[in-house]
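call fold(seq) -> tokens
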Amino acid sequence: MSRSFVCNFIHYGPANGGYWGIAPAQWWISQRAVTLDGNRNITNYNAGNTTSQFANAPKQIKEDVDLFRYGHIKEALDLTNGDIFKYSIANKKLWYPANNYGSYTDWDLMGKGVTRGDIAWYYTKDKHQRYRMPTGSEINKLYKEARAIPAYCYTDKGTKVYGAYFTTSTSGGYHRFPAKRFVRSIDNYTNVTALVQANKGLFLPYTGLRLPNHAEVGMRDVSNDQNAYGQYMTSDESHERGGKSGKESYDFYFGAAEWNANDLAPKSQAKAIRPVWDSGDGTSDNPTLDEDYLNLRKSIGLK
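ret:
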């Protein structure tokens, strides 16, 4: 696959600060190593032998976030916010509040700084490596042209994360999704850890979503072969009469019982973002990497 798709966009660490940017590995999901009780509720967020993909409606916490609402930057860690941003964030757009009643402009009229826009671009535009949200046409390369199989990766903690593995097709795309039509159970998913570590192909985890006004993550549960899926958001959106921005974003869905892409997903849902590389310092063979990114990789034992 193209190197343009990297790792999911995340926030990790203290709520006031912490790391904002691409994850240190393609398999990264929030709560990648947790402890569950007998009812599959998380009892320890910092250690354990399983992931949030086996938890019962796990609550996302501000220190470990991988799902975001369309256009939200200032309120990205307000996990129960359900506001709909009815402006476009295409083309790396950033927005400033124009008043206190929900209107926005492209210059800092009120001196409050950027509050809405492309969150991937906002947090990386001043770094050595810069990323933005994908467009609908870019994500459709995965949906319509790539080869995709149900797969899993081992994390740095030794836990398994389930999702889809994409490779470039030279003879027309094919997919083995919805996964239940082809492998029926996660027991039959393919281990692609070594391929991903070798930067071959692309792995996207089943991340599910957060509904508006909820911190709980839904549709991530793979236990008992449930219908978990990944829902990956683009900068594209629906449009209302007259071409005005609509209330939905264009998202790509894949999973146990899903394989589709459309602009029917409410912007108020929080979903995964797999950014694309926009520009960077250094060369393609020797890029200049950002210190915060290198520190995060080092902290989890990745070179």
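The helical segments are 119-124, 136-145, 193-197, 291-299.
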